[in-house]
Amino acid sequence: MGRHVLLIEDEANIAEAIRFLLTRDGWQVDTHADGSDAVEVVCAAKPDLVILDMMLPGKSGMDILRELRAIDGLHDLPVLMLTARGQSRDRDMAEKAGVSRFMTKPFSNIEVLTAVRDLLAQASRT
Amino acid sequence: MPRDMLTGSRIRERRAIKGLRQADLARQVGISPSYLNLIEHNRRRIGGKLLVDLAEVLGVEPSMLTEGAEAALISGLREAAAEAGVAMAETDRAEEFAGRFPGWAEVLVWSHRRITSLERTVETLSDRLTHDPRLAASLHEVLSTAAAIRSTASILAETGELEPEWRDRFHRNLNEDSARLADSSKALVNYLDDTEASADHRGAPQEEVEAFMAAHGHHFPLLEAGAGDLDAIIASAPELTGRAARQVARKILRQYAADVVAMPLAPFSEAVKAQGLDPLALAQAFAVDLPAVFRRIATLPEGVLPGEVGLVICDASGSILFRKAITGFALPRHGEACPLWPLFSALNRPLVPIRRRVSQLGRAVAEFDCLAIAWPDGPPGFERDPLYRSIMLILPVRHGEGDGATPQPVGGTCRVCPRSDCDARREPSILSEGF
């Protein structure tokens, strides 16, 4: 099982906290704050899991997710989406776009850690 | 107001219901029309034989004239019956009901008004929650900052041994985020307080402009007289609090002034009275285009037209740029309107005027004639696509004016539209979700 996580989040302090948390748990974490070139960054970094904020400057997390799912080899890439919008239709849209897990802000650290561990464990079994 | 002061109003109402002219009623009871006029305007007290005679001619008990239920109560009962759409409601006996059971009539009218008020509140709040970009951005800011604080605080609280460098950094982040949360929470509360406190829910520039135009009844006598100073009008408008709103208002008033020059009030009003509300004939008579005529009709003072008119203008993206509300036709405050509106159909066929009879399902089904046309806004240019705008004049269809044709059902916006079998639906309705 790979241990490389790419965190795409424009809130610097959220990114720093998650990065610290996952690094302590043994993950290699890269961060990126802009939506406009996020798809290219994912393709270049080849992470084992992406944590993706829904509202990003340049391009929305939902659009990024749709583009990623359309790329060969990235259909099954685990994507954990973070959002401040918890409405059911946002969740439905994310599920239709192929999200692996949907998490609303504010979340607890243990929720993030558990989600990352679960998603990568599932990915390693398939 | 003393009870006997209302007797005249009741006599006037009963006479109108019976379809009697003032002179006829006066003649039948042996008084002059001018004296009856004074009675009907509650300027003469009445009693004794004259009251009995009037009641007899009007076909009611004298007590119905002196002690009858308030006109507002009866009117409220009729309104409740009409909007309930229940065919068996005995609307012709509303006055009798109000007279015999005034307490229950009050309860019914109060309940109806309360329902109407709550429906409006639901509509406004759901519209705002769904589409208000300022509210969405504000909530996002609060929740994102709360997420950062929660994560950082957890790390500080739950991590046993934390290097001093990291600890200091997280303390600093916590300090920054808590200040940010305080500011964003305060801004959110202020925004909600402002919009709750003001009945017109202003805030966005378009809303301020809408409130400004509504406060003037969409009519500016100074501009009609060619003497208006746009800057002075705008500067004295309490509704226009933001620079963006003032800019939008200035553009609208500049267009208004130009329309006045092309279609001066007196000859335009005369033409409307002489030819009826025929926009094509008016456009020809004043050598202007249809959008100008639509705008001008919407700025006419009360009394020129038989009733109110609504007006909506959008750009090619469908964004509403201008709204003049009309009773019974829901215009969404934020975001997308119903794509079935002729306003949007016109964008598919620029410069082709279209006229559609539509019905909108609100508290009651109301029918409207919608006249729309899309036109290229701004000067033409080579290698440049024209920028289209569309305008729609909304005219109410009065009872009995329909030509029997089935009107096109339309909505206001999907979130508060109850129609379930609509191909144009973008998102579920809160009404069908049982919200």
From TrEMBL, chain A:
Which GO-annotated molecular functions does the record name?
Answer: DNA binding
What the entry lists under PANTHER family is as follows: PROTEIN PILG (PTHR44591:SF14), STRESS RESPONSE REGULATOR PROTEIN 1 (PTHR44591)
- Ranges for the Response regulatory domain? 4-120
InterPro entries in the cross-refs: Bact_response_regulator, CheY-like_superfamily, Sig_transdc_resp-reg_receiver
Q: What is this protein called?
A: Response regulator
- Biological process, per Gene Ontology: phosphorelay signal transduction system
Q: Which residues carry this modification: 4-aspartylphosphate?
A: 53
Q: Which Gene3D superfamilies match?
A: 3.40.50.2300
Q: Which domain of life is it from?
A: Bacteria
Q: Which PROSITE patterns does this entry report, sorted A to Z?
A: RESPONSE_REGULATORY
UniProtKB/TrEMBL annotation, chain B:
Which keywords accompany this UniProt record? DNA-binding, Transcription, Transcription regulation
Which Gene Ontology cellular component terms are annotated? cytosol
Show where the HTH cro/C1-type domain sits: 11-65
Concerning CDD domains, the annotation shows: HTH_XRE
Q: Which Pfam families match?
A: HTH_3, ScfRs
Please list the GO terms describing molecular function. DNA binding; DNA-binding transcription factor activity
Q: What is this protein called?
A: XRE family transcriptional regulator
From which organism does this entry originate?
Antarcticimicrobium sediminis
